[in-house]
Structures are given as C-alpha cells and as structure tokens.
C-alpha cells in the first residue's frame, strides 16, 4: 500500500477500535451514503494535502463533520468534539510497522443548520496530522 | 375501492396499455449496507433482494465522446419511470438490469406515492 492508503488505515483504525465502537456514535467515511443516518452522526474526511518528510509520508487535516439534532442547543456538539479530542488530540497512532500518524491540536467551527437537511445542526471538527512512513 | 387502490389499479392498467414500451427489468436491492472501518470498505449486511419490475424509459441520453476532461466520464444515462409500490425505498447501492445491461441508480428525480422517476447510468 502507498502512503494515502496507509494513512487511511491509520485514521480508520481509531473508528474501528473497540473503545470507539463502544461509544455507539454513528460514524461514516466520505463517499458513503447511509440510508438512515439518524439524527446524530459523524462524517470523517482525511485530507492529505500537505507535504511529508519523504515520499512515504504526508500531512494534512482530518476533518470530521458533526451532525446533531437541530434545535437542541450547543451542548451535544461540544460533547462530541470533546469525545473526539480524547481519541485524537495529541495522540500518535501506529497500526503498521514503522509508520505513525501524529495528531496535533483540534479546532471546532460551528456551521449551523445543515443546508441539505434542516432537521440537522452541523459543526466541523478539524485536527492537523503528520503521517510518517519509512522510505 | 379506496382512492389509493383505484390509482394503483389504473397505474397497472396504464403500464399494460403501453404494451412493449413497458420493459421487464430486475431491480437488485442491497439491504442495509454498512461501512466497516477495519476493512475500509462497505459491507452489505443482508442479502441482495431482486424484484421483477416494469419500467418505461422516458429519456435516453447518450453523451457524446468528448476530450473535455469534465465531460469524458458521463457515458450513457436514462430516465425511467417505475411504479413506486413495486420498488419501495431505494438507495445508491441498488441497481437495475434491463435490455441486457446493468444500470446504477444515480438519483430519484421525482417520486410521489405512486410513480417514481429515476436517473440511471449504464455500468456495463
């Protein structure tokens, strides 16, 4: 596998972990359409748009859209963002030999009512990462 | 007879009256497709249900071959009309076969309680 697929494996390993699954927070990747996503879910988009230290490395942003029920106040968005911080902020993840994905500090931007489904309220959690692979 | 049944029976009659304009098709419905983060791919939880349906092709659109990189992927698409009662709820993971080709369901253009109009793109 190349660096982009390896990066995906590292990022997805967080959401495949038994600890995250036990949180029972519906989580979907990009280019997947849940038939009944429900009124609270996350969408995960790794964007490896930056440079790495070698040809097997990369860097970029992990963007996670947080969808909650519209009209329920801001608390649930913040709870979910804090939950994501527990798994990601400042963490180093390594499922493959001699490769590691290091996450930095996160930020949260409130988007507001979702334009495609006004029963949902949306915020965007963003965290920069560096993925180091051995050349 | 209720109005709902009356409409459904007249719809069946209409599909019979157009004779060979109504084509036989097989709709393949994948039940409850989920995403497995460990495998990094989708997983159909249930079986693939096949449903025999009648369709009417209302628009055929064969895109010209083009060197324009924004258009070169468009291929062949049709707009088809089906009876809503026969197909139920659809998802992007469902497909339909008619005239010997498989077609991906790209979008539902319009759907009332009785008739659905779908845009389908040929995949084979």
What are its keywords?
heterodimer, A: 135 residues, alpha+beta, STM4215-like, seven-stranded mixed β-sheet, 3 helices, 24% helix, B: 124 residues, Thrombin, subunit H, six-stranded antiparallel barrel
Please describe what this structure looks like.
The complex is a heterodimer of chains A (about 140) and B (about 120). Chain A has about 140 residues and is an alpha+beta fold. Chain A has one domain (about 5-135): STM4215-like (2-Layer Sandwich). Helices cover about 25% and strands about 40% of the residues of chain A. In chain A, strands 1, 2, 3, 4, 5, 6 and 7 form a seven-stranded mixed β-sheet that branches. Chain A starts with a helix and ends with a strand. The mean pLDDT of chain A is about 95. Chain B has about 120 residues and is an alpha+beta fold. Chain B has a single domain, classed as Thrombin, subunit H (Beta Barrel). Helices cover about 15% and strands about 50% of the residues of chain B. Chain B contains two helices and eight strands. In chain B, the strands form two sheets. Chain B has a six-stranded antiparallel beta barrel.
């Amino acid at each position: 596998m190349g660096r982009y697929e390896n990066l995906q494996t590292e990022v997805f390993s967080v959401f495949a972990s038994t600890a995250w699954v036990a949180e029972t927070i519906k989580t979907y990747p990009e280019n997947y359409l849940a038939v009944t996503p429900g009124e609270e879910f996350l969408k995960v988009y790794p964007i490896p748009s930056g440079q790495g230290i070698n040809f097997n490395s990369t860097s970029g942003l992990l963007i996670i859209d947080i969808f909650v029920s519209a009209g329920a106040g801001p608390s649930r968005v913040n709870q979910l963002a804090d939950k994501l911080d527990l798994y990601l902020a400042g963490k180093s993840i390594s499922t493959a030999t001699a490769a590691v994905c290091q996450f930095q500090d996160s930020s949260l931007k409130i988007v507001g009512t979702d334009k495609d489904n006004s029963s949902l309220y949306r915020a965007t959690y963003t965290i920069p990462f560096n993925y180091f692979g051995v050349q | 007879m209720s109005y709902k049944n009356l409409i459904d029976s007249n719809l069946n009659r209409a599909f019979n009256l157009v004779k060979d304009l109504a084509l036989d098709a097989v709709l393949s419905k994948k039940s409850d497709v989920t995403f497995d983060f460990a495998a990094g791919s989708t997983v159909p939880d249930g079986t693939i249900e096949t449903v025999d349906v009648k369709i009417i092709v209302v628009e055929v659109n064969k895109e010209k071959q083009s060197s324009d990189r924004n258009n070169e992927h468009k291929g062949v698409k049709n707009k088809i009309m089906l009876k809503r009662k026969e197909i139920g709820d659809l998802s992007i993971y469902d497909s339909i076969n008619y005239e010997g080709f498989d077609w991906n369901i790209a979008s539902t253009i319009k759907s009332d309680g009785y008739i659905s109009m779908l845009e389908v793109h040929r995949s084979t």
